[in-house]
Amino acid sequence: MASSSVMRRVSLRNLRAHKLRLFLTVFSIVLGTSFVAGSIVFTSTISKAFNDIFDSAAPGVSVEITPENNQSPGVPQSVIDDLDSRKQELGIDRIVPNYSGLVTIANSDGKALQTGGAPSIGTAYLPADVALSPDSSKILPGGRGPTNAGEVALNSSAADKANLKVGSKTKVVLGQGSAEPRDVTVVGLIDLPGSTSGFVNVQFDQATARALFSDGSHAAQVDMSAVAGVSPEQLQERVTGALPPDIYKVRTGDQVRQDQKDDVNQFLTIFTAILLAFAGIGLIVGTFIIYNTFSMIVAQRNRELALLRAVGASQKQVSRSVLFEAFIVGLIGGAVGLGIGIALAAGLKALTRSASGLPDAPLQIGVPAIAAAIFVGVVVTMISAWVPAARASRVPPVEAMRAGMAEGSAPLTMRTIIGAVVGVAALAAIVIGAMGVGLGPAIAVGAGAAGAIAAVVLAGPALSRPIVGGLGTVIGAPFGKIGRLARTNAVRNPRRTAATAFALTLGLMLVAVIGTLGTSFKGTVDDAVDTGLKAEFIVAGANQLPIPGAVATAVQQVDGVASSVSFGIIQAKVGDDTVAGYAAVGGQPADVAILDMQGGAPDQLPADGMIVSERTSKDKGWNRGDVVTFTGPTGEEVPVTVSGVYADNEALQPWLAGPDVYAKLVPPAAQVSAMVMVTPEPGVSADTLRQNLENATDSYLTVQVQDRDQFKSSISTQIDQMLATLYAMLGLALLIAVLGIVNTLALSVVERKREIGMLRAVGMLRSQVRRSIYLESVLIAIFGAILGVILGSVIGWALVRTLAKWGLGTPVLPWSLIAVTLVASAVVGVLAALWPAVRAARTRPLEAIAEA
C-alpha cells in the first residue's frame, strides 16, 4: 500500500516537472473531447428549443383530423359540415378548418425575405370568436386582423426582419398554385408564441386563405376543441367513430405535439450522428497523437523507470504509474474539453441563429455531455497509454540504464507482413466494389477503405523508411549536410514517424474522398447541361426551389421565345411505392433537350403518355408499351402508357409524363414547376431574350433567369457550400494533425537535447539547427499527405463508380485540390516546426552535454 502511494507521488511529481509535455498531451485530448461535448450540448439545446415550441403548438386543440394519405388534397368540406352539424352530439365546442400553403413575402426593398431555411407559410387569420384559443395569435396594439383579399397580418419577428410595419405595402408570391403575385397591405402584426428566428407567417382572411390554399372543397386539416366535461381522448374516440375507417388520422392535441417533436428529434439524431462522426475522426487522430506522446515519454524515462525497478518497484507498479499519469491527463483533458465544448456549442448556436431558421434556447449542459467528455477523455487516454505502459514495465533495469536505449527498436517484419496482407485484401474489396453499382458495392468500398486504413497503420513504419528516405534525398539535397541530418532524424524511428504522419494521412484522405465526390458531382452537372440540353436559358427558383405554374405562362408570352417547356413536379404512387418525376407542359421536351430514343421510339411525348430513362426502365421494369398505373392524391388511378425509353440524360431523370397525366395526378393548387427551359427564336440575341424574360418574371420574387453557364455555376455553388461545411469540420482533424507534429517534434527535441548540444558544441549554428528541424517536419508532413491523397483518391474514385445508380457520372479526381494539398502539407510542416525549432536552437551546448 505504501509503495503504491510512493509511485503515485512519483507520477504526480513527474507531471508537475514536465509542464510543457503535460500541456501538449492535454491539448490533444481537449480537441477531441470538446467536439464530442459541443455536439451533445448543441443538439440538446436545439432539441429543447424545438420542444418548447411544440409544447405551445396547436393551442386549444383537443382533436385534429388529417388525411391518412399525405398526397390527399385534404378533408372534404362535406365531412367538415357533417361534423359541424353534430357538434352537440359528439361534444365538439368549436371546429376550425385549416388552410395553409407556402408563400414568399417581399421586404421593404421589394426583394424576397430570406428565412434561412425556416418555413414561410400562409394561413388563415382566426378572430378571437372563431379561434380555439385566444393565445393562438395576438394582434399587437396599433393593428387589426385582415378582412379582405388585399390585407394580411404578419408575425412580428418576420416584420422586423423585413422592415415592414402596419400600413406597409408589399407583395406576396404563392409557393404553389397559379395565382399571380399579389399586392397586399400589412394591417396587423402578430405575436406568435415560440416562432423561430427565420419563421414567416403571413395570415389572410379566412375566405382568401381558402381560395388560395385549397381547391375550395377540402381543408388540409381540421382542428376542434371539446366542450366542458369531454376529454380530448373521449372526443377522439367519438370523432373516429363518426368518420369512415382508414381514411383519416384522428389525433389529440398532445399526440400532434408529440409527433412534431418526434419528427424533429429524428432529424436531430441524424444531425448528431454526423457531428459525432467528425468528432470520432478527431478522436482517432488524437488517439494516435496520445499514443505517440506516451511512447516518447516512456522512451525518455527509461532510465528513470529502470531506477525505480532497481530500487524495488515491480513491473505492475511501473505500469500502473504510467497509467495513473494517463488517467490524470485524461481527466484534465476531459474537463477542459467540456468547457471548450460548451463554448463551441454557444458559437454554433449563435451562428445558426443568425444564418438559419433554427430556434433559440438556453444552452443545455446536462449529464450526457459531462459524462461523454470525461469518459472519452479518460478512456481514450488510458487505452492510448496502455501499450507504452506495458512496454515500460518490461524494460530490464540494467539495459534501460544504458544511454543508447531507445524506444521503437523492435523489428517491423511481422506487422509489415500483416499490413501487406490486409492492404491486398482491402484493395481487392475496393476494386470489387468499384465494379458494381448500388448500396452493396458501396459498402464493399467502405469495408475496403477501413482495411486500407488498418494496413497503413500496420505497414506505415516500413513504408516511411523508403518514402521519407527518398523525399529526404531529393528535398534535403540543396541543404547539404543539414538536409542529410534531417533525413536521418526523420527515418531514425519509423514507428514514431508513421504514427505522427498518420494524423495527417487520415485527415487528408477524407479531404480527398470528399473532394473527389464534389468534383464528380460538378462534372456530372456540367456534362448533363452541355450534352443534354438545347435550351439557352433556364428559368428556375432561387436555391433550386419550385416555382409557381404561372411563371410558365408568363414565359410563353415573352417576345423572342421559340419554345418553352415547363417541367412540372409529379409525386404519386405505383403500387405501394411513392415515385417522383416530371411532366413536360407547354411544349415537347425534344424542343429544349437532347432525347436519344432507344429502339426507334419517337421523341414526341404523348399528352396522355410517358417516356422513361434507361436507368428507370431497368430499375422499375418499365418498358416501351407497358402501362404504368399511378394513384393520385385523391385515390384516383391513372393508367399511363410508356411510349419510349431514352438514353440516360441527367437533366431529365427519371421519367417524363405528358400534360394530361399531370393534370390528372396533381391538383391545380399543388402544381409547381422545377424549371422552365427556353430556346430563342432565330435572330433574337441572347441579351434581348434575357431582358425580356427578366421583365416578365420580375414580379415573381423567387424566380431567376440563368443561361447555361450560370445554371451550372448555381448548382456547383451549392455543392461547394456543402463541401465547405464538411471541410470546416474536417479542419478539426487537420488541426489535431498539425498539433501532433508539433507535439512529436517538441518531445523529440527534448529527447535529443544532448545530441543537439553536441552539434552546437562542434560548430552548428542556431539557424542550421532550426533548418534541420524544419526539414524533418516537412518530410513527415509530406509523407502523411502522400499516403492520404493516394488513399483518398482511390477510395473516392471507387465510391463514385458505385453511385452511378443515383445519377453520378464518371469519377473526376480533384487534381487542383491534390496539388494544393501536397504544397500545403509542406507549409504545414514548416509551421508545425516553428516552435520546436526555436526551442532546439536555444539549446545550450554545455548544459546539454552535462546532463546525465
Give the integer mean of the pLDDT values: 81
Largest sheet: 11 strands, mixed
Instruction: Give the beta-strand count.
Output: 24
Categorize the overall geometry.
Answer: globular
From the alpha-carbon coordinates, what is the Rg to the nearest angstrom?
A: 34 Å
Helix segment tally: 25
Q: Indicate the proportion of strand residues.
A: 15-25%
User: How helical, in percent, are the residues?
Assistant: 55-70%
Provide the structure class.
alpha+beta
User: How many angstroms separate the termini?
Assistant: 32 Å
Low-confidence stretches: 403-408
Structure in a nutshell:
The protein has 25 helices and 24 strands.
Folded structure, characterized:
The chain contains 25 helices and 24 strands. Among the domains are: 63-251, no CATH class; 465-532 and 708-852, no CATH class; 546-701, no CATH class. Helix 2 (19-55) packs antiparallel against helix 11 and helix 15 packs across helix 23. It has 852 residues and is an alpha+beta fold. Residues 403-408 have low confidence and may be disordered. Keywords: ATP-binding, Cell membrane, Hydrolase, Membrane, Nucleotide-binding, Transmembrane, Transmembrane helix.
